[in-house]
Amino acid sequence: QQQVKQSPQSLIVQKGGIPIINCAYENTAFDYFPWYQQFPGKGPALLIAIRPDVSEKKEGRFTISFNKSAKQFSLHIMDSQPGDSATYFCAASSGGNTPLVFGKGTRLSVIA
Amino acid sequence: DTEVTQTPKHLVMGMTNKKSLKCEQHMGHRAMYWYKQKAKKPPELMFVYSYEKLSINESVPSRFSPECPNSSLLNLHLHALQPEDSALYLCASAWVGLGEKLFFGSGTQLSVL
Question: What is the least distance, in Å, from the CA of A37 to any CA of chain B?
Fold first, then answer.
């Protein structure tokens, strides 16, 4: 019930491609869905987040698509660059002080 | 200042040593967290402090002892660790009531020999 299932585990795309990372959840109490980006040797950093009242959110080259009925959300990276190579974690929260539930992560490599 | 600062960046310790990890933030956040992260895994929550009081302890072994001396500082005291405790230890902070928006430090890479 508390899990967030993330796929794929790893992803390799060419520069300029659009990698897509998918997450699914079961707990309908979740109401906040962030994505964190982590570079080697660094802590995760909040990239973009969405709440269930919208189906899509864009920030620069990053887009979250959200499907409430399917209980799925995904991250799209437009015009991907080698500098986007990192591990991406989706997460979910039921708000307030409830700890985040993280997906297992996706290692993205963008090759020139 | 939007940084969470952790020291040291790297630490090697023997199983009989006592050491401490330190974390500092000056964003006015009153919720502070310790996470453990193994290679290629997501962060695992260890402890949460809210207004300098321990609010969540995720059944962490007593060889890990957290301390929150004031609203800006968080320590993790380590004693008699095991090799399997080797990991990246991450500190994070957030506004109370907004625990979903975490600000992470860069972590301390701990190796237990």
Answer: 11
Tell which residue, A35, A79, A39, has the closest CA to residue A57: A35
CB A77 within 8 A of CB A19: yes
For the stretch A50-77, what's the b/e string if a residue is b when 16 or more beta carbons lie within 10 angstroms of its beta carbon?
A: beeeeeebeeeebbbbbeeeebebbbbb
Query: Which residues of chain A, if any, have pLDDT below 50?
Result: none
Cα–Cα distance, B76 to B88 (Å, whole number): 13
Give the minimum alpha-carbon distance from A91 to chain B in angstroms, rounded to a whole number: 9
- Going by C-beta distance under 8 Å and a sequence separation of 6 or more, which residues neighbour residue A107? A9, A10, A11, A87, B40
Report how far residue B50's alpha carbon sits from residue B33's, in angstroms, rounded to the nearest whole number.
9
pLDDT tens digits for B62-101?
999 999 999 999 999 999 999 999 999 999 999 887 677 8
The predicted pLDDT at position A95 comes to 77
